[in-house]
Automatic annotation (TrEMBL):
Keywords: Cell wall biogenesis/degradation, Glycosyltransferase, Membrane, Transferase, Transmembrane, Transmembrane helix. Mn(2+) binds at K269, D293. The lineage of its organism: Eukaryota, Viridiplantae, Streptophyta, Embryophyta, Tracheophyta. It comes from Juglans regia. This is Cellulose synthase-like protein G2. It comes from the Eukaryota. The active site is at D140, D449. InterPro entries: Cellulose_synth, Nucleotide-diphossugar_trans.
C-alpha cells in the first residue's frame, strides 16, 4: 500500500496564523488613529510657519510610507505553513528522473578554487543514482586555474565518492568533513580509519596541486583582460591517464566557460545560467536542474530526494516549477552582528509565502523544472521558424526543446565541442532571440532570481519551500561590513530594477497573481526605496526641529501620545516575538534593528540611486561578486561581535554624520528642555534620538572608544562633524528666516 502514502505533508500553523492576523488587525487600527491625528491637525489653525509645516508634512509622509510597507509585509504573515517529506516512499532508483547541477563561478581571486571544487565535489556526491546526475560548472572568469581545479577534483572524486557511499558519510563537502567540525567523523573500524586517512591525504594532494597552480599563475587574475574577453571552452572532464574503472559509477562532470567579449553584454549570473541551460540540453537534457552558487555546498546528500518528493507528486507536479531550500551559512557567529543569516527572510517570510503560491526564487539551492524555463509551452509539431525566434538558431537546442527530457548525448567529444562552443556558449547566440526576456533566467534585473521567480508565478507556476532541520545547503555569509553593504546595495538595485520596469509587481501582478502574492512581491521590490526615504527623515527632521524648539509629535498629556507609544511597543514586541520564535535572542532583535537602520541609510539609498541612474541611461549594469575569501582579522572581529568599519567613506559618512547629528540633538534638546521646561512637547523627539543612539552604540564605540584597525578613522569623524554642522546651520537659518 506504500503507493498511496503521500510523499509529503503540509502543516498549517493555526496558532501562529491567529497571532499574526490579530496583531495585524490591532496594529492597523493604531496606525489608523495616527493618520487621523495627523489629518485632523492639517485642518486646525496652528502657528507653525510654512517651513516647519513642510518638515511636519515630511514626517507625516514618512509615517505613511512605513505604514504602507508594513502593510504589504503582512501578506507574508497571512498563512505560514511548514512541510515534511518522506523520501523513503519515493519510487525505485531506476524510476527517478535525471538532474543537472549548475554551479556558477566568476572570479578565482574572490572565489577561491578550493572552495569552488568543494562545492563541485559535494554535488557529485549527492545521494542519487550517479548515471542520473550531471554536474556543470560555469566559469565566467575563463580561468585555466578553474579548469585545472576541475581535473583535480575529478581525480579526487574517484576516491571521495566511494568513500562517502561505503561509510555513509553525511558531510560530503570534503573540507568540512576533514576539518573535524563535522559531526559524523565516526570512529569505526580500523579499516575505516585507514581509509579515512588515505582519503584525507588525497584531498590534501588535490589542495596542494591547486595552490601550486595558483602560485604559478600569481594573483590578479580577475583584473586581467582575459576575464572579460575570452573564447568559449566546453570540456567533459575525463582522466585519460587513468584506465582503471572506478569503484562506483561517477556522475558526468562538465566545465563550461562561455565566450565573453567586451562588446557584448554578458548579463552576469543569469547569462551564465542560460548558457549552461543550452549546453546541458545538448548533453544530458535532464528534466530537473539544481542551481548552486560556487560557495554553496551540499551539506546533506539527500536534498535531491527530498526535492523529488514534491516534483514526483502527481497532485502538484504539473504546476510545480521549483523547490526552494533556505539559504543557510556555515560561518554565522552566535551574535550575528550584521544579520548575515537573513533570519527574517528564510525563517519567517518564505514560510509565509509558502502558504500562498510558494517561496520566491532565491538564487541558490533550488531544484527547478527545466520546462518551466522555456517561457511557454512547446510541443513537437511547433513551427521551426517560430522556435528559432525564441530559442536561437541551433538545431541541437531546438531538438532538445522539442524532445522534452530526452537526453541528447552527442557521443563524440569533438563534435560536441564544436556545437556547444560555436553555438550554445557563444556570446552572440542570444541576439534577437527571447533568451533573457521570456526564456531562461531573465536579464532585466541584477536580482535575476527574484525577477525570474516572479514571472514564473505570474505564469501560473507554483513553488514550495522545503526547510528540514538539518541545513541541506550551506554557503558563505558576509561577515564584514564592507561585503555586507556592497551585497545589500546590489540587492537593492535589483529590487528597484524590477519596481521601475514593466514588471513592477504592484501593476504587473494583480491580473496574474492574488493580491496577497502581489503584496509579498511588492514588499520586496519597494522596500529599499520606501525604507530609505522615511529613515533619512526620521534621522534628521525631528532632531533639527528639536534643536529649534519645534514640536512634531503630540504632547505627553495629549491622548494621541498613547497611540504613538502603542505603535512603538506593538512593533517592537511583534519583532521580538518573531525573533524569539525562530531561535533568536533579545540581542538578535537589536542587531536586526541596527542592520535595518544602517542599510536604509546606505545600501537602500545607493541601490535605488544606481537603479534610477541605470534607467536614465547614466550608468551601466554591474554585478560585483561577493568576496568569499576569509580574512582572519575580519573574521576575528565578527566572531567577537565587533563591527569592522574598514569600508569606503561612501558608506561610513552618512552613518557617522547621522549619529553625530543625533548626539548633538540629544544634548542640545535636553538642555533646551531643562531651561525652557517644555519636556511635555519635546518628549517624543528626545526619545527618538535616544533610541537611535542606543541601537547604534557600536558606531559610537567605533568612533570614540575603539583603537583597533576596525574602528572608524578620526578623519571620517571629523568630516562627519563638518557635514553635520553645515546641515544644522543651514536648516536653522532657513527655519528662522521663514518663521
Ligand atoms: O558575472 C557573474 C557574476 C556572478 N556570478 C556568480 O553568481 C553567484 C552569486 O554571486 P555572489 O557574489 O555570491 O552574490 P550573492 O549576493 O552572495 O548572491 C545572492 O544574490 C544574487 C543576486 O544578486 C543571486 O544570484 C545569488 O544566487 C544569491 O545567493 C556566484 O556563484 C558567482 O560566481 C557569475 O557566474 N557571473
Ligand atoms: Mn553568495
Amino acid at each position: 500500500m506504500e503507493d498511496s502514502l503521500p510523499l509529503h505533508v503540509c502543516h498549517v500553523n493555526k496558532l501562529s496564523i491567529f497571532i499574526h492576523r490579530s496583531h495585524t488587525l490591532v496594529h492597523s487600527m493604531a496606525l489608523a488613529f495616527l493618520v487621523c491625528y495627523r489629518a485632523s491637525f492639517l485642518f486646525q489653525d496652528h502657528k507653525i510657519g510654512p517651513t516647519p509645516m513642510l518638515l511636519w508634512l515630511l514626517v507625516f509622509a514618512s509615517e505613511l510610507l512605513l505604514s504602507f510597507i508594513w502593510l504589504l509585509g503582512q501578506a507574508f504573515r497571512w498563512r505560514p505553513v511548514t512541510r515534511t517529506v518522506f523520501p523513503d516512499r519515493l519510487p525505485e532508483d531506476d524510476k527517478l528522473p535525471a538532474i543537472d547541477v549548475f554551479i556558477c563561478t566568476t572570479d578565482p581571486d574572490k572565489e577561491p578554487t578550493v572552495v569552488v571544487m568543494n562545492t563541485v565535489l559535494s554535488a557529485m556526491a549527492l545521494d542519487y543514482p550517479p548515471e542520473k546526475l550531471h554536474v556543470y560548472l560555469s566559469d565566467d572568469g575563463g580561468s585555466p586555474l578553474t579548469l585545472h581545479g576541475m581535473r583535480e577534483a575529478w581525480r579526487f572524486a574517484w576516491y571521495w565518492l566511494p568513500f562517502c557511499r561505503r561509510y555513509g558519510i553525511e558531510t560530503r563537502c570534503p573540507d568540512f568533513y576533514f576539518s573535524a567540525l563535522a559531526d559524523d567523523i565516526g570512529f569505526g573500524s580500523s579499516e575505516f580509519m585507514t581509509e579515512r586517512q588515505k582519503t584525507k591525504e588525497r584531498y590534501e594532494m588535490m589542495k596542494d596541486s591547486i595552490t601550486e597552480a595558483r602560485e604559478r599563475c600569481g594573483q590578479g587574475h580577475s583584473r586581467s583582460s582575459t576575464a572579460r574577453d575570452h573564447p568559449s571552452v566546453v570540456e567533459v572532464i575525463q582522466d585519460e591517464s587513468n584506465d582503471t574503472v572506478p569503484e562506483t559509477k561517477m556522475p558526468l562532470l562538465v566545465y563550461v566557460s562561455r565566450e565573453k567579449r567586451p562588446s557584448h553584454p554578458h548579463h552576469f549570473k543569469a547569462g551564465a545560467l542560460n548558457v549552461l541551460q543550452r549546453v546541458s540540453s545538448m548533453i544530458s537534457n535532464s528534466p530537473y536542474i539544481l542551481v548552486l552558487d560556487c560557495d554553496v555546498y551540499c551539506n546533506d546528500p539527500t536534498s535531491a530526494r527530498k526535492a523529488m518528493c514534491f516534483h514526483l507528486d502527481s497532485k502538484i507536479s504539473n504546476s510545480l516549477a521549483f523547490v526552494q531550500f533556505p539559504q543557510r551559512f556555515h560561518n554565522i557567529s552566535k551574535n550575528d552582528i550584521y544579520d548575515s543569516q537573513l533570519r527574517s527572510i528564510y525563517s519567517v517570510l518564505w514560510e509565509g509565502v509558502d502558504g500562498l503560491k510558494g517561496p520566491i526564487l532565491s538564487g541558490s539551492g533550488f531544484y527547478i523544472k527545466r520546462v518551466s524555463l522555456y517561457g511557454s509551452t512547446v510541443d513537437e509539431d511547433m513551427d521551426l521558424e517560430e522556435l528559432k525566434r525564441s530559442y536561437g538558431s541551433s538545431n541541437e537546442v531546438i531538438k532538445s526543446v522539442r524532445q522534452i527530457y530526452k537526453p541528447n548525448v552527442i557521443n563524440d567529444q569533438r563534435s560536441l565541442q564544436k556545437v556547444t562552443q560555436l553555438l550554445a556558449a557563444s556570446c552572440s547566440y542570444e541576439t534577437d532571440t527571447k533568451w533573457g526576456k521570456e526564456v531562461g533566467f531573465l536579464y532585466d534585473s541584477v536580482s535575476e532570481d527574484y525577477l525570474t521567480g516572479f514571472r514564473l508565478h505570474c505564469k501560473g507556476w507554483i513553488s514550495v519551500f522545503c526547510n528540514p532541520s538539518r541545513p541541506q545547503f550551506l554557503g558563505n555569509g558576509t561577515t564584514n561590513l564592507n561585503d555586507y553593504l556592497i551585497q545589500g546595495t546590489r540587492w537593492s538595485t535589483g529590487a528597484i530594477d524590477v519596481s521601475f520596469s514593466k514588471f513592477c509587481p504592484l501593476i504587473y501582478g494583480p491580473p496574474r497573481i492574488s493580491i496577497l502574492e502581489t503584496m509579498c512581491y511588492g514588499e520586496l521590490a519597494f522596500s529599499p526605496l520606501i525604507n530609505c526615504l522615511p529613515l533619512w527623515c526620521f534621522a534628521t527632521i525631528p532632531q533639527l526641529c528639536l534643536l529649534n524648539g519645534i514640536p512634531l509629535y503630540p504632547k505627553v498629556s495629549n491622548s494621541f501620545f498613547v497611540v504613538y507609544v502603542f505603535i512603538f511597543l506593538s512593533a517592537l514586541s511583534k519583532h521580538l516575538y518573531e525573533v524569539l520564535l525562530t531561535g533568536g535572542s533579545f540581542q538578535t532583535m537589536e542587531n536586526e534593528q541596527r542592520a535595518w537602520m544602517i542599510k536604509s541609510i546606505t545600501c537602500y539609498m545607493y541601490g535605488s540611486l544606481d537603479a534610477i541612474m541605470k534607467r536614465m541611461g547614466m550608468r551601466e549594469a554591474s554585478f560585483m561578486p561577493t568576496n568569499k575569501v576569509e580574512d582572519d582579522e575580519q573574521v576575528k572581529l565578527y566572531r567577537v561581535g565587533k563591527f569592522d568599519f574598514q569600508t569606503s567613506n561612501m558608506f561610513l559618512l552618512p552613518m557617522v554624520a547621522l549619529i553625530i547629528l543625533n548626539m548633538a540633538a540629544l544634548v542640545g534638546g535636553l538642555l533646551r528642555v531643562i531651561f525652557v521646561g517644555d519636556w511635555d512637547r519635546m518628549f517624543v523627539q528626545v526619545f527618538i534620538s535616544c533610541y537611535i543612539l542606543y541601537i547604534n552604540l557600536p558606531i559610537i564605540e567605533g568612533m570614540m572608544i575603539r583603537k583597533d584597525k576596525g574602528r572608524i578613522q578620526p578623519s571620517v569623524t571629523q568630516l562627519s562633524v563638518i557635514i553635520c554642522i553645515f546641515f544644522l546651520l543651514l536648516g536653522s537659518i532657513i527655519i528662522s528666516i521663514v518663521r
